[in-house]
Design brief:
about 325 residues, alpha/beta, Arc Repressor Mutant, subunit A, D-Maltodextrin-Binding Protein, domain 2, nine-stranded mixed β-sheet, 11 helices
Length: about 325
């Protein structure tokens, strides 16, 4: 028996049939007739000199040889498809796929899409709002924007785009009711649990310690998404310890205010991440430059703040 690989079309037919356990469904997926698919699988079995399927009355099932071949065939076509998509992305200078967290996408990226589109009409920008870990090859993503502590990862280009800080924010009406930090002892506080895993913490207890006040702990409404907490604060539902990046639009439009001058800083930051070398593609370079230009506006909000590192007030 020869170790020479059989034709790719025959292996592709087998993979489809093994996944569907149906010749007719596999034929429909591959846009061929059932007879043509059956012919390809028969040629594969002749190449192997053993059957891959047992043909039953109205069904098929894999033989031992078929069960041995199926996982490798599936993995092989998955890897081949991913490699082909990656190769196509290297020559595509008009499409850019970006992933970022849902809150950052909703509050910071999405409002700026029109500006980027105006400046770069030849680039089609696609967003995937998710926090899950990215595999750049598997997930067909060019760039990820992620919030976390900086770390070096082999094979990746990574650049900081935002230094983050937090301070209490609320609607103008609530600010009149709670004019001093001490007044927050009786204010409704909004809590965000999406950053609870970060140590040292940058949460309400940490901010109260930074302000020299007795800490208040997790009493009040809790949100799994930071943008939902911000929306609740805009509606007058309470006071949120908000990140400047996510709140910038609401501050600019006057929906939220920062009445106090004490802010928490954190080593966690927003970073622009992509595979090494991808940062040099024209559309990726244009998007990175746009992000860096847009984030410059955030520096103006902290001019009168007293910053306290969250690590200095860690419990």
């Amino acid at each position: 028996m020869s170790d020479r690989l059989p034709p790719l079309t025959a292996l592709r037919a087998f993979d489809a049939a093994a996944r569907h356990m149906s010749f007719s469904k596999a034929a429909a997926e591959l846009n061929v007739t059932p007879a043509a698919l059956s012919f390809q699988i028969k040629s594969l079995e002749e190449h192997l000199e053993a059957p891959l399927f047992r043909r039953l009355n109205r069904a098929v099932e894999l033989t031992d040889a078929g069960r041995a071949l199926a996982p490798g065939a599936a993995d092989g076509f998955t890897a081949l498809s991913a490699a082909w998509r990656a190769a196509r992305r290297t020559v595509d200078q008009t499409t850019l796929t970006v992933t970022a967290g849902p809150a950052f996408t909703a509050k910071w990226l999405a409002p700026r899409l029109f500006t980027f589109a105006e400046q770069h009409p030849g680039i089609e920008l696609r967003f995937s709002a998710t926090l899950r870990l990215m595999d750049f090859t598997r997930d067909d993503v060019d760039v990820a924007i992620r919030f976390g502590f900086p770390r070096e990862e082999e094979g990746l280009f990574s650049r900081k785009i935002i230094d983050e800080w937090l301070t209490p924010m609320m609607s103008p009406a609530l600010a009149e009711q709670y004019p001093t930090p001490a007044d927050l002892a009786r204010a409704p506080l909004l809590h965000q649990v999406d950053t609870a895993m970060f140590k040292p913490s940058f949460d309400w207890p940490a901010w109260f310690r930074a302000a020299g006040l007795p800490p208040r702990f997790a009493s009040g409404t809790q949100f799994s998404q930071a943008d939902h907490a911000l929306d609740a604060a805009v509606a007058g539902g309470g006071v949120v310890l908000a990140r400047i990046s996510l709140a910038e639009g609401d501050l600019r439009e006057g929906r939220l205010v920062m009445p106090y001058k004490i802010a928490l800083t954190t080593q966690a930051q927003y970073r622009f991440v992509c595979p090494d070398g991808v940062e040099n593609r024209p559309q990726v370079k244009a998007f990175l430059g746009f992000l860096e230009e847009q984030t410059q506006a955030l520096s103006g909000y902290g001019q009168d703040m007293t910053f306290v590192d969250a690590a200095e007030v860690a419990d």
